[in-house]
Design brief:
236 residues; 2 domains; 6-stranded mixed beta sheet; 6 strands; globular; binds S-adenosylmethionine
Length: 236
């Protein structure tokens, strides 16, 4: 995923640029990467000159402690991970007064839990943005199948990274990784919601926010503002 979204595509760089603009436009000094995984957006933000004064927070349902510690040690004045699980299907008071970034993660949330995630975020007083790197279209599925090629090149492109022997084994000798990339790409496309499906979910929230959509060639961006009052007490 990192190889595709931070290497071949500039997806994570574009996300970082966009959320810095949101922070500046709304005078918010904290950006929180939700469902961060290895925190690829934060890894872009720390290099972004316009993000210099911002506080960057990473969190996840299953925090990647090793990745968080690494980036927090490198940028102790900028990156402040949450090492305990942050489940977005539950109210989260720590998410107020911030820009909330959900990049490439919503298609991993089961359909029936997505409304709970939208509700949790909409109950904050933060600005929120979902960035999905794929669409549920034939074109997107076609591009997903092309991920076979970067996968087969991983032993070369990631030659300097640890885990070299593992990559030679699973990409070339027993080449299951390229097929796993294709499978993951196609299922990720099929798990995407269309703009109309997102809007229906927003319309069904207790207090539906005004939502803005930007659909790209192979991506979807969704922007909205929470309607909560920023109370420090649990909302539900
Ligand atoms: C494919 S990873 C995406 C990680 C990262 N955003 C990226 O682009 O590499 C999806 C992440 O969503 C997280 N996740 C799934 N359900 C969640 C939930 N209910 N609350 C918070 N995070 C969740 C998973 O733990 C996982 O790290």
């Amino acid at each position: 995923m990192d190889a595709c979204n931070s290497g071949l595509r500039s997806f994570n760089r574009q996300v970082a640029k966009s959320v810095v603009e949101i922070a500046q436009a709304n005078q918010l000094s904290t950006i929180i990467e939700l469902g961060a995984g290895r925190a690829p957006v934060t890894a872009e933000l720390v290099k972004h000159e316009d993000a210099a004064g911002l506080r960057l927070v990473t969190c996840d349902l299953v925090p990647n402690v090793e990745a968080y510690q690494k980036i927090a040690q490198q940028y102790p004045d900028k990156v402040f991970p949450i090492y305990s699980p942050v489940d977005l299907t539950q109210p989260q008071v720590a998410l107020n007064d911030s820009v909330l970034v959900l990049a490439g993660m919503m298609h991993h949330i089961p359909f029936e839990l997505r409304p709970a995630v939208l509700q949790t975020i909409s109950e904050t007083n933060s600005r929120a943005a979902i960035f999905e790197p794929l669409l549920r279209t034939w074109r997107s599925i076609f591009f997903a199948t092309l991920s076979f090629f970067p996968a087969i090149l991983l032993p070369i492109t990631f030659f300097r990274r640890p885990g070299k022997l593992r990559r030679f084994l699973w990409c070339w000798i027993i080449p299951i990784v390229p097929y796993m990339f294709v499978w993951d790409g196609i299922t990720s496309c099929l798990r995407q919601w269309t703009r109309a499906e997102w809007q229906e979910a927003f319309d069904n929230l207790e207090n539906p926010p005004k939502v803005e959509y930007q659909q790209g060639f192979n991506s979807l961006r969704i922007f909205w503002g929470g309607t909560g009052n920023g109370s420090k007490k649990p909302i539900r």
